[in-house]
From TrEMBL:
Keyword Lyase: yes
Cofactor(s) this protein requires: pyridoxal 5'-phosphate
Family the UniProt entry places it in: Belongs to the group II decarboxylase family.
NCBIfam families (alphabetical): PRK02769.1
Record-linked Gene3D superfamilies: Aspartate Aminotransferase, domain 1, Type I PLP-dependent aspartate aminotransferase-like (Major domain)
Keywords attached to this entry: Decarboxylase, Lyase, Pyridoxal phosphate
The name this protein goes by in its record: Serine decarboxylase
InterPro entries for this protein: Group_II_Decarboxylase (IPR051151), PyrdxlP-dep_de-COase (IPR002129), PyrdxlP-dep_Trfase (IPR015424), PyrdxlP-dep_Trfase_major (IPR015421), PyrdxlP-dep_Trfase_small (IPR015422)
GO BP, sorted A to Z: carboxylic acid metabolic process
Organism this protein belongs to: Oryza rufipogon
Length: 496
């Protein structure tokens, strides 16, 4: 049977077929529309549930045979499942509150403090955040280096993670690849040669704390010594890519120390690798004094600063990290690392005895697929129409109580004059820009919710009107003269 002709009601048979292609069936599921017949709808839903069940089995089978990538599958997240029902977003700078109230910054602070202590930097001297993965930590560290030294050159061993070279391309910074030994460790003689060839330009150095393929660790002390001996004493920035081993070294006896006591600028680590968080995430720690070069300004829309790479950040990740660290403690992590090292030695010996010779959230496509399949075009259209109706309703209600309001045609964003009451704005988590705020009428926003909002805002307006000096503000520059309810534009319209 051709993939294009697979019916959504024939999934059960196809699932058990050797010829079954998950990709083809999923594509078909997204394209076809929900039937109108009630019995067919039930059969179709059964097909969806069946497919998801088989996909779970597929993931279980793949997970049982996963050895090639550095991630821990020791997942014990049962107590955290309750938070999957919330849109937790740690948008912006974690140390600056925003107007988005559904966040997990309290967990993020604890996680950052833990890593700052691990890497020996005082609380009042560091800045950092929980990233969406190890690559983002590298982007952050190298960006700080580039901003501190705009004329600098990035030096990275050829075994460095691809994100290092990707960052160099994005930031348009010259990048010199340094040769490595067979172990994957940087060759310091070649590093020295390249430094001397470019002695007039500052050095931005990526130090690998465990390379991607071989797990090689560059000698931080040797790199610092080479920089100083080549005349770069105060003209270098070091970022340590510790995606996997950055968390391991502090727990291994006689391991080289990666610490902010040494002249490094930043360290990044992954959270979904050794710690086994279920979604890609990581941590980056910088020196607080260096962050000023990123020139963060207050973003009025979120009422916060933002020098992070991604802006919106997965608020689930800090909770998972906190839970893992809190549950295990230093000794628990130490025991787990020692067990990993023993098992690695065991595998090496066994292999010799038998003589054999580069994250995006993977759950997102599943959620998107399920939503598209469950609703279909007609369902999505109905939801959009409901949002538009609710947005129109909100606009009319606001204007009826004397509040400047406006919405663009075919938009679900209602713009209105910025409320005077800060507590009211925080309660409703309003995003503001200049003299106006807005409400985004999403599917979960009901008539009832909007009604309560307008009634509370109307009460605030009524209280202001008791002051004879109060007048409706002019926001014509923001919403147009024809929509402005200020006295000036009301008089102009009356005279026409």
């Amino acid at each position: 049977m051709e993939a294009s002709k697979i019916s959504c009601l024939q999934v059960d048979e196809q699932l058990d077929s050797v010829q079954f292609s998950l990709t083809n069936v999923v594509e078909r599921y997204v394209i076809d529309e929900p039937p109108e017949d009630a019995q067919a709808v039930l059969k179709r839903q059964h097909g969806i549930d069946n497919l998801l069940g088989h996909f779970r089995q597929h993931l279980q089978e793949r997970s049982a045979h996963h050895l090639g990538h550095p991630l821990s599958q020791k997942l014990d997240v049962g107590p955290l499942a309750q938070f999957q029902h919330f849109h937790i977003n740690n948008i912006g700078d974690p140390f600056v509150e925003s107007n988005y109230g559904i966040h997990s910054r309290q967990f993020e602070y604890a996680v950052l403090d833990w890593f700052a202590h691990l890497w020996e930097i005082p609380k009042d001297q560091y800045w950092g955040y929980v990233t969406n993965g190890g690559s983002e930590g590298n982007y952050d560290g190298l960006l700080v280096g580039r901003e501190l030294y705009p004329e600098g050159i990035i030096y990275a061993s050829q075994d460095s993670h691809y994100s290092i070279f990707k960052a160099a391309k994005m930031y348009r910074v010259q990048c010199i690849k340094i040769d490595t030994s067979f172990s994957g460790e940087m060759r310091y003689d070649h590093f020295r040669t390249k430094l001397l060839e470019n002695a007039r330009r500052p050095a931005i150095v990526n130090v690998n704390i465990g390379t991607t393929v071989k797990g090689a660790i560059d000698d931080l002390d040797e790199i610092i010594s080479t920089l100083e001996n080549c005349g770069f004493r105060d003209r270098f920035y070091i970022h340590c890519d510790g995606a996997l081993a950055g968390l391991m070294l502090p727990f291994i006896k006689q391991a080289p120390k990666v610490t902010f006591i040494k002249p490094i600028g930043s360290i990044s680590v992954s959270g979904h690798k050794l710690l086994g968080c279920p979604t890609p995430c990581g941590v980056v720690i910088n020196r607080l004094k260096d962050i000023d070069v990123l020139k963060s300004t207050n973003i009025e829309y979120i009422a916060s600063n933002d020098v992070t790479i991604s802006g919106s950040r997965n608020g689930q990740s800090p909770i998972f990290l906190w839970y893992k660290l809190k549950s295990m403690g230093y000794e628990g992590i130490r025991r787990e690392i020692e067990a990993c090292l023993r098992n690695a030695c065991y595998l090496t010996v066994r292999l010799r005895n038998v003589t054999i010779s580069g994250s995006r959230n993977g759950q997102s496509p599943i959620f998107l697929w399920y939503k598209l399949k469950s609703m279909g075009y007609e369902g999505i259209q109905r939801e959009i129409e409901a949002c538009l109706r609710n947005a129109c309703y909100l606009t009319v209600r606001l204007r009826n109580v004397g509040i400047n309001a406006f919405m663009n045609s075919k938009s679900i964003i209602v713009i209105f004059e910025k409320p005077k009451d800060e507590m009211f704005m925080q309660k409703w988590q309003l995003a503001c820009a200049g003299n106006v705020a807005h409400v985004v009428v999403m599917p979960h926003v009901s008539f009832e919710m909007l009604g309560i909002f307008v009634e509370e805002l109307a009460e605030k307006r009524y209280a202001l009107l008791q002051n004879k000096e109060f007048s409706v503000p002019c926001v014509a520059m923001d919403i147009g003269q024809e929509n402005c309810l200020c006295k000036l534009h009301e008089n102009i319209r009356s005279s026409l």
